[in-house]
Design a protein that fits this description.
By secondary structure, the chain is mostly beta strands. It has one helix and seven strands. The strands form two sheets. A four-stranded mixed beta sheet has the order 1-4-6-7, with no helix packed on it. Strand 6 and strand 7 form a beta hairpin.
């Protein structure tokens, strides 16, 4: 837990070892599975070497066509909303 009382993932793949699927929150997602979070990079660092399924959860109005991504951004494999399920384009 952070100093602000917010739960955050441990950094590194050992925390995710043996986990098949991770649900990833975000403020916005694009059609390529990239997301806008809260700007600290916790999820990107935790998921950098994670080989399991990454599923972003969003309301449909949070899904937009394109977000600017950086080299350290980790895309979700799927983004799921109340209206659709989108698979990341490869």
């Amino acid at each position: 837990m952070s100093s602000l009382g917010v739960f955050q993932p441990e950094v590194g793949t050992s925390a995710l070892q043996g986990i098949d699927c991770v649900l990833v929150p975000g403020i916005a997602f694009d059609h390529d599975g990239f997301r806008v979070g809260f700007g600290k990079g916790y999820y990107d660092r935790a998921l950098k070497k994670y080989m399991g399924l990454k599923i972003g959860l969003a309301y449909d109005h949070q899904i937009i066509p394109h977000l600017e991504s950086r080299g350290h951004d980790v895309p979700c494999d799927f983004v799921v909303s109340e209206k659709r399920i989108m698979r990341r384009s490869l």
